[in-house]
Batch of 3 targets.
Target 1
Amino acid sequence: MIVHPLDRPVWSMLTERQAHLATGDARALRLDRGYGVFGVAADTGAEAQAALAALIPAGEELWIVEGDAWPVPPGAREVKRAVLAQMVAEGAPPPPRAGEPAIVALGEVDVAEMTALAEHAKPGPWGPTTHRYGPFFGIRGDDGRLLAMAGQRMLMLGMAEVSGVSTWADCRGRGYARTLIGHVMREMVARGETPFLHSYADNAGAIALYESLGFRIRREVHVLVIAES
């Protein structure tokens, strides 16, 4: 049976365009810890599951994202499970709207601000080099403060994930997320990539925003967070 790359997104990213960020072997892989917490096994067989458990960093967690609910590998313990809505953009990305705030490219000099914003907004796992996944963009206030940001994370053949969407609580309701997501989408499409993203399945507000930008739910995917037993 042919499996769509998005049915096993972590496996796809770590065996395709982002294989250079992977640690492990053909049985199981783990993302470079600086970038995040994702891990994946080749299958649910005993050998692959044991290899996956061996990749759990001491005292830390490993996040598994799969189309189907995944078993807890022997030697590991379940920390939590969650269900995500996996969404793929259909049609052309939305054009810029009149009066949108200026968007700036973010880089190494902005890491401290990006990290503080990510820790506040909690858009998903964020590590010391997560900003290096690819282009990140932000909106700054008149005083130079970074108010909001968005960028990318998982990359696979012909597809790129919108991620890291974050806004300070006192700046929400101003359309910053919409502006930044639209910009990231246009950047991806210009490179010949189809944008996709993940949202917690019970986050109706976020899903409604993404749908207004042209994303449609493709399927549910399952998150399993594990740690050493």
Target 2
Amino acid sequence: MALKFAVADLTIQRIVEQESPYLPALDMFPDLTPERLGQHRPWLKQAHALDDNDMLVLCFQSYLVKTPHHTILIDSCIGNDKPRPGRPAWNMKTDDTYLRNLAAAGVSIDDIDVVMCTHLHVDHVGWNTRLDNGRWVPTFPKARYVFGEREYEYWTAQNAKAEVPPFADSVLPVMEAGKADIVSNDFAIGDHVRIMPTPGHTPGHFAVGVGKGKDDAVFAGDLMHTPLQLRHPELSPRFDIDPAQAATTRRQFLERYCDTDTLCCPAHFPSPTVGKIRRMGDGFTCEAV
């Protein structure tokens, strides 16, 4: 059974594809010192966010959100059959974990109305498409796929210089199938779902707020990757395209939702992932619910 969070008239479920050690903490964060890591090591290990080798543990997952009117998938993880030679755990993957966990949440690929990609990195677009007789086709045949305009333009330009494999196999086939909506920052779905620009990790990265008239829950995408960034919002990973902007955006986001009832749903925090943002000194914490 997938863990289900109920808030107001919404239900939220995590669809986990992988959860494992990802990168050494000191490699992932150029500005993280061994001394600072040492200060935080005990609670990070207790939270299962750091292993015995100082590797950060990350979860790769989607969120399934049911509003009174729509079934929405936020981010689509890693995907199968995709050449990712630089990442052995993702390269030409063929396991059924993701679709099995989607089924365990009581949902089939035909039930998804909207797929929203917070940004177009490899681990957020992978299940947008699946291999069918040698062609990439949309995995969710009845869904509209939502891509941010600025994000789409950025990766279109990058792909024109040299092919970006996740863009080529997981975004462009959706466009070619006529299933995509390229949206501006004022995009909303009814009165329950809206996007909010959170640039820095990528130029067009957005978070997603859900709830009627207020943010009952917010989906942070890659605004932050590990609970360590709550304590030190200035820490940006080496794959943020604009680390300084990402740090500013992250603190603004945390200040906005700190000490509110909004459920915060980050993309990569280890299980149980979801919590409420609370202040802790000059930083924050995410109290699990």
Target 3
Amino acid sequence: MTVINESKEAQDNLLTPQQPKEKLLEVKNLKKFFPVKGGILKRTIGHVKAVDDVSLSVYQGETLGVVGESGSGKSTLGRLILKLLDPTEGQIVFNGNDITSYSQRKVRPHRKDMQMIFQDPYGSLNPRMSVGELIEEPMMLHDRLTKKERQNRVIELLDTVGLGGEARFKYPHEFSGGQRQRIGIARALSTRPKFIIGDEPVSALDVSVQSQVLNLMDDLQKEFNLTYLFIAHDLSVVKHISDRVAVMYLGRIAEVAPKHSLYKQPLHPYTKALISAVPDPDVNRKREKIKLEGDMPSPSNPPAGCPFHTRCPEAHERCRSERPELTNMGNEHYVACHLYTESYKTNT
């Protein structure tokens, strides 16, 4: 089991929905459809709906966890936010600027404030560049620093992530997976960003190393006043690192809530199934596991109505024909499920 320092838990207890919070990022009705080509002429015969009408906000200084099965659109959402992909529809507002239609040249000044920690600590680092060159490169693109200033900052960042300044002369292949991820974190911090997306940053690491990297990210968040969007499929990790959690299914948001509310009282049937599958350290506590039948439908041919109705044990007729919208259940707890709409409750 991943062991996280307790300071994060103590902080979470101080974070309540009543506190005034400033939005750093706002995503409105975001969509990304990838064309499917077919036939001799390679015409578009359909679309893969990787992200389908997603709206969410990330507040300054918080960690928003995004969870879901493989293929739910989590990583695509992260790349859309960073403008590594252009959205099909929707709006991305970062730090008060609508960057949705920005060209790559126009979005570049904002890139220094938005960085990513990638999932693969092996494939994300250029093996031909030394560690010092890897960390220095973003500063050469975004900051007007002298070579001496850049080198001093490289040493400072390597010390910060626990590798030491002498590591700048080595190459990625000389480090373990956990050490490489620390290099990736140092590179993400090199431009002094406000916002970092972690695309499953610990999923490729051993469990013992995961806790070290997560504790490091927690410490860095407090030291540099960072805001995180933490993408993962491990709900036990997300529970410790996040302030709020968004659950995605088939390119859509199923539920968003403060983590304590989500884990203690999940509302969406999909969220209930995910949480029931998390191992419980208390062997004497008996908890019923919810088994979902079938596989996630293809995003190139999603079902009508609620995208989860083909696997939902509580689906009814309305779920098969009408798509539910995110409904505020109070205390910043939102769910997209017909079980909680007024018309359904009245009729039943």
